[in-house]
Structure of MarR family transcriptional regulator:
Amino acid sequence: MEPDHVDEIISAWRVEMPEIAGLPLELAKRTALLVSAFDLTAAAALEKLHLTQAEYGVLATLRRVGAPYRLKPTDLTHALLLSSGGTSNVIKRLVAAGYVTREADAEDGRSSWVELSPLGVKTAEEAVRATTAAHARLVSRMPDATARALSEHLRAALAAVEEGVLIHR
């Protein structure tokens, strides 16, 4: 296989600090570049819908939980790995845009529910379709067998490293 940009990085580190230039660094760099490619592709699709990645995260999370498409802000914070302040800011923007509503929890006066509005459901579905299509375009650039093998290898890698590391399912 042809050398890639990561091979160049590893070669440079082999000269400067050979003790760090190995498989862990190769995996970290290649994984980071792959994540970046997916994120940039999704961001371009979301920009057309005037959504940020964080706004998309909230809309998609609420949509995937099913009707009535609602969660408590703390559940959104945990699901999205955002800070509570970050989640609150995103929710405020989504309320202002008419994508979500916020109502007090009748059983717990200290808590509230965040729920997709009908416009929010429509927008969430449009955004999920747009990002999925963008990701599919990336994946289509590799042979199907490679994509399937990569998915299975990533599943095994995640299972091996999840314990003791903050990775949210």
Q: What stands out?
A: Helices lie at 5-16, 23-48, 53-64, 73-80, 84-97, 118-139, 144-162. The chain has a mean pLDDT of 92. Residues 1-48 form one domain.
